[in-house]
Amino acid sequence: MDQSLSGQNQRVQKYLGDKGLVVLIALLSAFVPLSTDLYLPALPGMGDYFGVSADLTNLTLILFFLFFSLGLLFWGPLSDKYGRRPILLAGLALYIAASAGCALSWSIWHLSAFRVLQAIGGSAASAVATAMVKDVYDGRKQESVLSIVQSMVVISPAIAPVLGAFMLPYTSWRGLFLTLALIGVVSMAGALLLEETIPSRYTGTVAQSIQRLGAVLRNPGFTSLLVVFSLVSTASLAFVSASPYIYQDWFGLSEQWYSFYFALNAIGLIVGPFLYLWLSRHTSRWMIVASGFAVMLVGGALVCLFGNLGPLFFALGLFPASLMGSAVRPPGAFLMLDQQKEDTGSASALINCAGLVFGSAGMILVFLGGENLVLSLGALNVAVGAVCLAGWAAIGRWGLVRS
């Protein structure tokens, strides 16, 4: 596939314009957390409605993650062959239909089946979103757009459960799935206005296009970066999953106070990518990333040492780790995409899939360290910061990355 640099192929979007395209990409990037976390507050009620155990109800969540990850690896390479727009339209059509099917489900098994279809359709949105950034933008502009995208990725898991809890007094769990269908319709409207962004398409067969995933992984620069930066999701999603148990069960706070303290750390997640853009005007990308990993390590140590003294000590100790863990995401995504001058869809799929897999691992690992989740989360941040810092140094020492 002869694919030249994205900046040389940049096209003006006739209908969406530049701002409309950025909004659409940001919305598509939020599909995972919106589809999983919006209905989390409704899970107990859904179990009661269907008369099933919590394990069966949680199956709707587990199946979504599994098939979303698999879908990414399917849609990403196909978007290199057929283009971003057709894949996005097909995925969104399936997502909308499946979301409506979830809302109309009459048993937990029907709901689970529709959740699988919803995951497969929604994964097209995430796979295409990051690829479009590489298609359309380059250099400083690409990093700016990636900062917005990464902010959506890290803050949506925080906002979605709160939004779902706010909606439940006024609607049922069915209403939450109808809301997801509506989000799909809004995204579809944007996709219909979208003009194709891919500069050139892969000309091999479908099987050969999917095999390009292996070709991307054989790039040592891309794969080393993929491992290092995906590890960051282990710590960030561990906090999202453990935070209600830490603040409400361990510290005994009310739901209102939990929201306040959670918002404090969420601010770090939101501000981090934009802090990177500001810092990048004054120092090198390599130094910012190294400092970010070091701060994660130190923040985790502060949580281990002082986090159990109270919720404020915990929140303030974790804040720098949340801030800098989020700040390294845009340069990480930029560098990974920069290693691939072709197969952008495959690279985008692997980036999103790896982040999801490592993040899911973090949501499990934080609960394996015993009852003291504060200590477990602090230790996890120390470990992630140390491993990422060592990996980053090794990448630089061995000259694996082109930047």
UniProtKB/TrEMBL annotation:
Entry's localization field: Cell membrane
Cross-referenced Pfam families, in alphabetical order? MFS_1 (PF07690)
- PROSITE patterns xref list: MFS
**Molecular function GO terms recorded:** xenobiotic transmembrane transporter activity
List each coiled-coil range: none
Q: Which InterPro entries match?
A: Efflux_drug-R_Bcr/CmlA (IPR004812), MFS (IPR011701), MFS_dom (IPR020846), MFS_trans_sf (IPR036259)
Primary subcellular site in the record, as a coarse category: membrane
Regarding the membrane, this protein is recorded as: Multi-pass membrane protein
The answer to keyword Nucleus applying to this record is no
Q: Which residues cross the membrane?
A: 20-36, 56-75, 87-109, 115-133, 145-170, 176-194, 222-246, 258-279, 286-308, 349-368, 374-395
Biological process terms in GO annotation? xenobiotic detoxification by transmembrane export across the plasma membrane
* Family classification: Belongs to the major facilitator superfamily. Bcr/CmlA family.
Protein name per its UniProtKB record: MFS transporter, DHA1 family, bicyclomycin/chloramphenicol resistance protein
Provenance organism: Methanoculleus thermophilus
